[in-house]
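Hello again,

I reread your note about wanting to compare the complex against the isolated chains. To keep things tidy I'm splitting this into two emails, and this first one only covers the full assembly. Below are the input lines as submitted, including protein chains and any nucleic acid or small-molecule components. They are followed by the predicted structure of everything together. The single-chain runs will come separately.
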Amino acid sequence: MSEWTLFEVFIRSKHGLNHKHVGSVHAADAEMAIENARDLYTRRNEGVSIWVMPSALITATATDEKEPLFDPSEDKVYRHASFYELPDEVGHM
Amino acid sequence: MTKYDDLTEFLLRLGDSALIQAQRLCEWTGRAPALEEELGMMNVGLDLVGQARNWYDYAAERINDGTDADALAFRRDERAFRNLLLVEQPNGDFAVTMTKQFFYDAWQFHVLTLLKNANDEHIAAIATKSLKEVTYHLRRSSQWVERLGDGTDESHQRMVNAIDTVWRFTFELVEQNDTEWSLSEAGHIPALTELPELWHATVSEVFTNATLTVPDAASTFYLSARTGMHSEHLGLLLAEMQFLQRAYPDASW
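Full-complex prediction:
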């Protein structure tokens, strides 16, 4: 068990367009990871497709990079499409 | 001992095997090697309880003396059970559990595939529904057999020991029987003549990938599920499984 690999699990739901991360499972290999994910995360009809990938293969941003990476976008409100006057006929977008 | 008609006996053989296999799987609750594996095994167990219920409902309808699925599961004695000897065997280690599961899954898979085309609509419907679940069960246990057989020296040795432990009960999975002959003669179910060959082919294929050797065909011995002559393990299993309904009949909460 301690030698098993951690896999990240992505599920596409029936009407969903993309796979969404739902959690992780331990497994000895990718086939077992798919089965464990099936048994763990699709018990209640949640999905029609499963992806798994070894967690170790994910490259992630580091917590201490948060400020340089994400703060600069905070004061750039003009990047949001919220300054357009919408004609009434368009209704809700 | 009540002996039911051939079709009912056949339904009990399917239902009892599923229930007893499920009960054995439940024994792993809280003891499985990993949380993921435990959930996986319990899922298979739940599928099998559901299948047992479907076979029992139909059997109860045919027996037609007021019995129901619960009574068939919890109020019958050992000798009345028609489950395969294989599924009542103790779990042993994980390799024994998976070997039993694999032999049983391969049997179920081919039986249900044949029964899907039964003229009896009840049987065809239950088989069709169950087959989806069993296809997954077989895939799961096959992969475990391959993983363990073709794994480490120790896992391989444990598989060899496991096969040695339970192989002798596989004679029941490949025997041809008068009951089933007459059922297919009477048009209830398709002939199960190909079953031994199909089962053997599946086992050979998986064993080859698992670097395991298929033993020579197991020979018949005096125990037989068809007559309720079980090994000593079924009685203990039933004592545990049936305790509540026996001690407090019709208990509810």
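For quick reference: The longest strand of chain A covers residues 5-12.

B.
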